[in-house]
Amino acid sequence: MNAVAVIRSAMDAIKEIPTSLPGVLILEPRVFSDERGFFLESYNRQVMADLGIVGQFVQDNHSCSIRNVLRGLHYQIKRPQGKLVRAAIGEILDVAVDLRRSSLTFGRWEAVRLSGENKRMLWIPIGFAHGFRVLSETAHVLYKATDFYAPEHERTLAWNDSDLKIEWQLDSEPVISDKDRRGRTLRDAETFE
């Protein structure tokens, strides 16, 4: 196989699906399945660069949560992070909120179902708050970040901000941390230029 064919096959490894928020992308990896199970390539630096995702990932995170846990909406005002998120096991409703004041979509949000079954990933660039709600009994969420966790710069946007009107698809009261209960409304939050 020549170099051009290798590049083309790598580019076919992940399908890009645009969202209503510029820069936020749903990514569908190509899955190879047989009687043994499946194989997929969840990250390839060259393929990501071809999609415009050029940040260097410096940290991988893994959370495990029970049904109806709602985490977020988190962001770092300094040392901001781009995140590549996927649910390896279970299903989540993943949400990104545009916090870039100069953006035409400032204050708008996008929600995407990510699951071990659909194997989709969500790319959330710098300038967005991120959170998710667990839809299955449990969910293992993996995400790559473009900068290190810096608790002194972490901020929390209120998950239930009445101005945002995020449709979390709740069927009961969510399980939320004390930190997330203290999230600020968009009107009071620190945002990006």
Detailed description of the structure:
By secondary structure, the chain is mainly beta. The chain has a domain at 22-27 and 56-181: Sandwich (Jelly Rolls), CATH 2.60.120.10. The protein is 10% helix and 40% strand. The chain is built from 3 helices and 13 strands. The strands form 3 sheets. Strands 1-2-10-7-12-5 form a 6-stranded antiparallel beta sheet, with no helix packed on it. Strands 9-8-11-6-13 form a 5-stranded antiparallel beta sheet, with no helix packed on it. Strand 3 (31-34) and strand 4 form a beta hairpin. The chain is globular.
Write out the CATH superfamily name of the domain at 22-27 and 56-181.
Answer: Jelly Rolls
Shape estimate: globular
Measured distance between first and last alpha carbons: 46 Å
Could you say which structural class the secondary elements and strand pairing correspond to?
Answer: mainly beta
Task: Report the CATH architecture of the domain at 22-27 and 56-181.
Answer: Sandwich
Number of strands: 13
Query: What is the CATH level 1 assignment of the domain at 22-27 and 56-181?
Result: Mainly Beta
Largest sheet: 6 strands, antiparallel
> How are helices and strands ordered from N to C?
HEEEEHEEEEEEEEEH
Estimate the mean pLDDT confidence: 93
CATH topology of the domain at 22-27 and 56-181: Jelly Rolls
Strand content: 35-45%
Pick out the low-confidence regions.
1-11
